[in-house]
Amino acid sequence: MLEERASQQEKAASKRPMKRPALTKRATMKKVKIQTKLDAYNSRLEAVEKDTASLRSANATITKQTDTLQVEARRNKASMNDNTEEIIKLKERMALMEDRARRSNLRLVFLEEGAGSDNPIAFLQRLLLVWLPALAARGTIEMEMAH
């Protein structure tokens, strides 16, 4: 019985018109379309991979430059701190020198303003001998103007 059925199906199949070439042609066309799309996707993927590699390379370069700049900034900061310390020392030294230069100045309190204004050095030399008799034994007192 099974054999009869199989032979009947074979006869029926042989009576049907063959649609296989049309199906294969359509399947082949679909396959070609799919393959074309896959090729396009592959080429796009390759382009994306190249761009990604380029971006990675650029990122590595930028990272190296950033690291170099950070090291240089640290050195500059240390140098600036050293320079700041040196400036402070120099300011202190300048202030000390200015203070020492002021020590040569003489301010006489209780002396009338304008006294001896025509020749202040001669005026002071004369008065110092009167005020400090011990200086008279030495002779003349040397004086110079500070300013």
From TrEMBL:
The keyword Coiled coil applies. Residues 31-100 form a coiled coil. It comes from the Eukaryota. Residues 14-29 have a biased composition (Basic residues). Residues 1-29 are annotated as: Disordered. Keywords: Coiled coil. This is Uncharacterized protein. It comes from Aldrovandia affinis. The lineage of its organism: Eukaryota, Metazoa, Chordata, Craniata, Vertebrata.
